[in-house]
Amino acid sequence: DMSHLVSTRPWAASMVPPTNAKELSNIAPLTSGLKLRHILGLQSYGTRLSVRFNNIGDIIYPTSKYVCVYQKKYNAQMFYHGHTSELACVSVSRDGLIAASAEKCARPCIHIWDTGTCETVIVLPQLHRKGVTCMQFSQDRKMLVSVGQDDDFSIALWMSATGSWADGKLVGWTKGDVNPPLFVSFYEQNQGMGGEGYLFASGGRYHQKFWKVSGKSINAYYPEYDKKVKIGTLLCGTAVGGRFVSGSTKGHLYVWSGRRLDRMIRAHELGVSAIWAGPSG
């Protein structure tokens, strides 16, 4: 069954076995094999915001179907082997203990695993299609939000009551936007979830949205700003205290108070591709 390869390798669907193949049933199995020891390079094409750190400073990044945990001090690597297809996204909890990764295929699964041992904690149920563009854990790591690559760019909220993720389950999902979201980020829980009850925010090509959750229902709220302002494409965003800050392709930072645009700051000459807020805001 090669159905999981069709989205990334279209030619696989037309492959057929040769008609003149020799009988191979009498060939003895191999008595030796290969063991992965080191991977050179980083997979940056097709992934965004997927280079992270664990709790002891090791670098975590995608390389083909493996997630590499690089220990700079010893020039050594560990690998998460759980995926069978090329990776689409990697995220790590704020405390660096738990990672989430997802592959690019027809029906991807999100794998939750331990960053110290590279052992699987849980594989979440299939939901998204084609891939997962971005994910993020909440500050207390009890929630995870993910964005799919399907036509609706579906947004899903997952939860672990204990924070260990052995009990991880789906809370709910909804349509994201007609344009692809490029980031999703939680508000800080100790800041009253954005001051107006927003749990997280997302943004991307020509849009910014703020999200509230009630039971299994996830509802989007559109931003409020002057019609003279041209938002354009937003590449990144993060919560800063009770506010949210988005970075655009034109180098502007948009500061949102609730869902209202508070001010626009000319921060860079070119696009703002990544943004991070420290604990002190």
From TrEMBL:
UniProt cross-references to Gene3D superfamilies, sorted A to Z: YVTN repeat-like/Quinoprotein amine dehydrogenase
Keyword Repeat: yes
Domain EML-like first beta-propeller: 77-276
Keyword Chloroplast in record: no
One annotated GO molecular function: microtubule binding
Keywords, in A-Z order: Repeat, WD repeat
Protein name: EML-like first beta-propeller domain-containing protein
SUPFAM superfamilies listed in its UniProt record: WD40 repeat-like (SSF50978)
